Structures are given as structure tokens and as C-alpha cells.
Amino acid sequence: MHIKKFLAVIFSIVILAGVLAGCGSSAQQDSKQTAQQSSLEQIKKRGVIRIGVFSDKPPFGYVDANGKNQGYDVYLAKRLAKDLLGDESKVEFVLVEAASRVEFLQANKVDIILANFTVTDERKQKVDFANPYMKVSLGVVSPNGEPITSVEQLKGKKLIVNKGTTAETYFTKNYPDIELLKYDQNTEAFEALKDHRGAALAHDNTLLFAWARENPGFNVGISTLGSLDTIAPAVKKGDKELLDWINAELETLGKENFIHKAYDETLKPAYGDSINPEDIVVEGGKLK
């Protein structure tokens, strides 16, 4: 009797192990099938495309008084949603900070980053950039009463930058003796400038031109610094299918001059006639 009971227990354990193995195999198969789905298939199945944008960087990406996402990047994001999913409202805007853009892609929190993302060699190691839709350089803004018109004037003074930006990288690498005051959010950085916590603030010149125009008493004393760079959509490293789709989309939009329309709708009100659109706009994903 003891032997029969023992054998029965062993038999039950074997059966249970087989069932659990089958369940595990099924779960692994489901996970594998999900992984095998292309990024475009996953987006279409989900019914929305998740795009990372800024909340506090007007006129490129910001949340207006009604809680709506607005700006140049947002304008493009809505068109991508419309052409991929048939409706511009099928976009989920995910608010990011400059320093979190790479992380959000790597963690699959977003499908695309459209948060004024400057293309750099360092970032190319972590994400894949599509073709550009904008040109940009660094600039430095300062109070009219104490203008900063050259980098040499910053020595011995504090310069305000945002964490994770090309401005932080540029000054850290090229001018390590200049003390940097670093902030996560654009709002915090510009408030620090207004409070005279730093002698000047370095950021994308395209942002500074608009900000200085809306804030009397400040001027972009250094309008161009470093190299001329480009801004482009970014996707998770290795996501070639989504990358190719974005590049094809930008080329198609170029045929209708869409990026110029985005400029007129979102940037021109901030710049007026002081900026030549051709100094900023990249149409069709191709630099001229």
C-alpha cells in the first residue's frame, strides 16, 4: 500500500510538472508572438501612437491654459498619428524632460520622441534618429543691463543650462572652468535667469529667439555657438520599421510643404519677421 501511494504521488507530480511546463511554454509563446509583432502592428493594435513631447518649451512643445498640447513638435506629431492611424486624435502625448528622452524610448514608454531632440553622435549610440525636420544651434541669452556677447565673458560667472541638453554637453566638454547651474525643467531654468541666479542661460537658439522676444529686458547676445545641428524624430534603437516609416512620411509631407505650414502656424507667431524660416525649417527630411 505504501508503494502504491508513493507511486501515485510521483505520478501526480509528473502530471503537474507537465501541465506547468505547458503553461510556461504557452506564456513564452505568447511573449514571443508579441515580440515578433512589428512596431507598426503593435501601434495599430493599440490604437494610439505614444509620442514624447515637452510640456514647457514654447513654441515647440507646451501645455496651454486649457491643458492642451501645442507647438511645432505637437503639430507634426498629430499629422503622424493621422497618417498612420487615420485620426490626429489617436496620439497619446507623453510629457518628457530633456534628460529622460532616451530612457523613455529604451523603456518602451513612448514610440517616438518629438521633443526638440538634437542629433548627436553620443545619442546615436542609444537611439535611432530619423531624417531631420529642423536646424538648430546653441545660443546664450542674458539681461540687457549685463549683456553676455562672448563666451570669454562667462568665465568666473554662473551659466544656467538644462540637464541632458546639448548646451550642458557643449560647455562641460569645451569650457569646464565655467560653472554650470543645472535644472531639469525649462521653466526652472528661465526663472533662475530672471532671478539673476546666473549671468546667462545657454540653450537652443531657436528657443531663445522666441523667449527673448516675449520677455523684454533680455537679449540673445550670442546667437550662434558651436556647430549647426539638426533636430529629428527618434525611435528605439533597432526599430528600423518605424524609422523607415517616419522617413517616408517626412518625404511625403515635403511634397506638400507641410513643415513650412507647421512653421507658419506655430513658430512665426513667436518669431514675427525677425527670423528667416529657411534658417530653421528642413522640408522633406533633407538638408539643402
How would you explain this protein's 3D organization?
- The protein has 288 residues and is an alpha/beta fold.
- It has two domains: 40-133 and 232-279, D-Maltodextrin-Binding Protein, domain 2 (3-Layer(aba) Sandwich), CATH 3.40.190.10; 136-228, D-Maltodextrin-Binding Protein, domain 2 (3-Layer(aba) Sandwich), CATH 3.40.190.
- The protein has helices spanning 2-36, 39-46, 72-85, 101-106, 121-124, 166-174, 186-194, 205-214, 240-254, 258-271, and strands at 49-53, 56-57, 61-63, 69-70, 91-95, 112-113, 127-129, 134-143, 158-162, 179-183, 200-204, 218-231, 234-236.
- The strands form four sheets. The protein has a five-stranded mixed sheet with strand order 10-9-11-8-12, sandwiched between helices. A three-stranded parallel sheet has the order 5-1-6.
- It is globular.
- Mean pLDDT is 91; it is low at 29-34.
